[in-house]
Amino acid sequence: MNRIYLLLCLSATMVVSLSGCLKSDNNRDEEMIRENEMAIESYLKADSLGSRVIKDTTGLYYITRKPNPTGEKPKVGDAATVKISGYLLSNGTKVISAVDDKPISFSVGGFVLLGGIERSPFLMRTGEKTTFLLPYYLAYGAEARTNVPAYSPIRLEMELIKTRTELQQIDEYILEKKFVVTERTPENLFIIRTDTTTGPPIGSGKSVRVKYVGRFLDGTKFDEDTPTVTTNTGQWAKGFDLAIQKLPAKGKAIIVFPSSLGYGATGKGPIMPYTPLQFEIEIL
């Protein structure tokens, strides 16, 4: 649930930012950009490490509080596990936090709308703690929200605990669940048979009824249904379709696959970009 809560919060932040910029006056925007920069510079003058600040090409400022030169940098599509909190630069009011202040994982570089929160992990290495200073256009935008005045610069505190590729996430998940993989295809579809039904595989171009439950690797359910599936028509996620083709009639399995066999860099509905998926499936 922590993962979903964070993604919803960050998505809402970025949507507000975009809509605020679209509705705001350009002259006002430019004036507030200058005001934000003055506020950030004033904050940095009072900060003992302010001389170490770096300004990113996006307009984001950051100070590495705890460096780790040998740490790993996240790549697009990796899952970054972070501790995160954010505050109004003006008065220190907390406006961004994880549920119960616990570490949260999310795919970096996968949001539909860009913002300072998405950019931040790319400027860190694992084990590092960093302060990010976000001008309003990289935070909540030009419209007011609860506890957040319009055009507010934000101070973001982040610790990058670890970063994992999709296959590393899948390997950890399978190990944690103690699954015995029946088959792993060259495309990295993992099939864990949960019955002993035998018979010829369903194959391509066949219509079958399938009962399924779809979950993220943290166990959160995002979908379930009992549709009629015609295989190899491009109607379904590739990993889901391939698994059905490989199972016999009445077969049951748990399947796991990366976003390259799912919804890739765009995502779909509640499925964020670069998200590996797990399905429990039964051929009826």
UniProtKB/TrEMBL annotation:
The keyword Isomerase applies. Gene3D superfamilies: 3.10.50.40. Keywords: Isomerase, Rotamase. Residues 77-164, 205-284 form the PPIase FKBP-type domain. One of its GO terms (cellular component) is chromatin. It catalyses: [protein]-peptidylproline (omega=180) = [protein]-peptidylproline (omega=0). One of its GO terms (molecular function) is peptidyl-prolyl cis-trans isomerase activity. It is an enzyme of class 5 (isomerase). Belongs to the FKBP-type PPIase family. This is Peptidyl-prolyl cis-trans isomerase.
